[in-house]
Amino acid sequence: MVLRVDSDRMRADFEALAEIGGTPEGGVARTTFSDAHFEARAWFLERGRAAGLATRVDSAANHSVVLPARDPEARTLMLGSHLDSVRRGGRYDGALGVLCALEVLRSVQDAGLELPLALEAVDFTDEEGTLIGTLGSWALTGELSAEILAAPRGGRDLLLAELERVGLSEHDLLSARRDPASLAGFLELHIEQGPVLERADTAIGIVTGIIGSSSFLIVFEGDARHAGTTPMDARRDAALGAAAFVLGVRETVTRDFPGCVATVGDIAIEPGSFNVVPGRARLRMECRSLDAAELDALEHALAVRAKVAADQWGLEVDVQRAGRWDPARTDERVRAAFTDAAGALGLSTMELPSGAGHDAQALARVTPSGMVFVPSLGGVSHDPTEHTAWKDCVNGANVLLGATVVLARSLQNGSII
Ligand SMILES: [Zn+2]
């Protein structure tokens, strides 16, 4: 018999969770350590307790609901995602994965199944990067370092202020590492956040790997001069370097790195007025690849491109790295378990890479990990209109449940990567 989750229970919980930090536009605003974020995390633990499950909060504030195994020494199969959101987020990103993980634990318990591994549904801290990005999963896997803490994505001042406000220290974050030998694997359900599954009319995506990304702050320096009195041939216009670089990024990627993407997502021109030649341009650029060596080469090529643009317009340029997430391959056994579980439910599947970063990216470095995607309506995500049909959510939860039961048995004695 194929085990199934309780769709009504899960739906009621989904609706209740979406109310926490809910916005008039129908999305959620639950940035890391906001009141709504804390409320959602407390609600999650309470739902676990209400089901008679154990709970834990580690020193990186990762929140977990646990279904222990009979053997207290048993390793743990983790499932989960994140309850934080971007500023104007949707209801599904992260939250659906945490809820489905909780529902899997409840369904295993309800069925009276005794599995040889503990099951842990986890809500990782700051996946979306209000402070650092995948902070909780990096802390848990030991990837968080003093170097990362020194230059966090949201700025060092914000990180320190927020940690102090919520009673955490950098030492706490660095102490949250779990011994990989205690983990048997990690499974994450997530909305696709792209249009591939919907276009292919496919219920379940089996993620082959999670794309790596690097982000950079790039500053072109010229001279701010009077826009009326400075001849065109006597200018060092920083905006021209920025413009040449933006076009150059696109040319380099499309010509030399098919399959990769790169984006200049922000340009700030200084001093920023009608009548002053721009003296400085600050750019935020990121690039992504599924392969670590290719990502290295792409980073290098884009840095060279910045230098070429600067030379072309007589400028100085400074390129600083602001973050790097290595690409990660998912585990073959986990992919097979998802495929088999979907097959047993009569659901269509396809394999696809993840173009977005996820907590599974960190976990994949220390334990067999995999991800299952469910379709996103119109491919929309990080927006209040983000939507996944409820039947697709339930299908995903059932695949997660089926794979969990199989993997809890097969990974019991499996060796760590
Ligand atoms: Zn997410």
UniProtKB/TrEMBL annotation:
The keyword Phosphoprotein does not apply. Transmembrane segments: none annotated. Its cofactor is Zn(2+). Zn(2+) 1 binds at residues 82, 93, 190. It comes from the Bacteria. Binds 2 Zn(2+) ions per subunit. This is Hydantase: amidase, hydantoinase/carbamoylase family. Belongs to the peptidase M20 family. NCBIfam families: hydantase. The lineage of its organism: Bacteria, Bacillati, Actinomycetota, Thermoleophilia, Gaiellales. Zn(2+) 2 binds at residues 93, 128, 382. InterPro entries: Amidase_Cbmase (IPR010158), Bact_exopeptidase_dim_dom (IPR036264), Peptidase_M20 (IPR002933), Peptidase_M20_dimer (IPR011650). Keywords: Hydrolase, Metal-binding, Zinc. GO terms for molecular function: hydrolase activity, acting on carbon-nitrogen (but not peptide) bonds, in linear amidines; metal ion binding.
